[in-house]
Amino acid sequence: MRRTLTILGLLAICAPQILGHGDDSHFSNRQDVQVKTTKVAGNVYMLQGRGGNVGALVGMDGILIVDDDYKALSAKLAAALKELGSDKPRFVFNTHWHGDHTEGNEFFGKDSIIVAHINVRKRLMDPPVVFGMKTPPYPSFALPIITYTESISLHINGEEVRAVHYPNGHTDGDTVVFFKNASVVHLGDDFFVGRFPFVDLDSGGSVQGMIYNVATLITQIPADAKVIPGHGPLATLDDLKAYHQALVETSNLIQAEMKKGKSLDEIKKAGLPDKYKEWGSGFIKTDMWIETVYRSYSKK
Fold this sequence. Notes:
The protein is of the alpha/beta class. The chain has one domain: Ribonuclease Z/Hydroxyacylglutathione hydrolase-like (Metallo-beta-lactamase, Chain A). The chain is 35% helix and 18% strand. The strands form two sheets. It has a seven-stranded mixed sheet with strand order 1-2-3-4-5-6-7. A five-stranded mixed sheet has the order 8-9-10-11-12, with no helix packed on it. Helix 8 packs antiparallel against helix 9 (237-259) and helix 9 packs across helix 11. The two termini are 24 Å apart.
């Protein structure tokens, strides 16, 4: 019963932020939502609306964007991109399948080439159930038409854009995008700055995989790189290291209680040390993070 109540409570809070595909009523009346544009480095910008952070590479060869927010924000995102050169991106990369990063495909897909990991295309064709909700398939023009299994590079605007698949972290289709010359990296939802992340266990994600992927990325990202997270402010490698440490320490604490035979409810009641209070103040609350770790490490 408690688990059922937890899920029902999360539906009202979380599902619109992750899903929303086919129903943008949660945002359609929010006239106050604006797209904020921040120059990151070189010709790379970060745009923040209502959903996941959008990366943009601009130049004479056209605009390339990484993720495209909710479709309710598409017109405002297009207007912000027009200020950078064009409201019609030449390329759109999807870092994973969730609607707060891909719904804009329906707006931009008629003019842009959408690129993503093969699992993203599969998920958008038949979206999994998340928080008890299933969204409809994306139309064909909103699907990635260029896919890859490991990595792909595009050379545009004097920049090498390298998209690399990191498996089974946030989902099973996660891509990290490296803007090599500008020393900028877009991590998608493998990185929530200063907050516990959402790990979509029903879409092939795992806490173990996320911890491993972030540890790997820490060794691959230059010390002076600018880091665009899936959610949160522009960050640094030190921020990513702090995030990794929090994931490791909290998951170890929860696993230790599991080894003692404690139930999920008992672990939730005990909670986590006060130092992690702020980490549970975002989209994923402390109880949900504990449940995610518990479920992830309970899987065989």
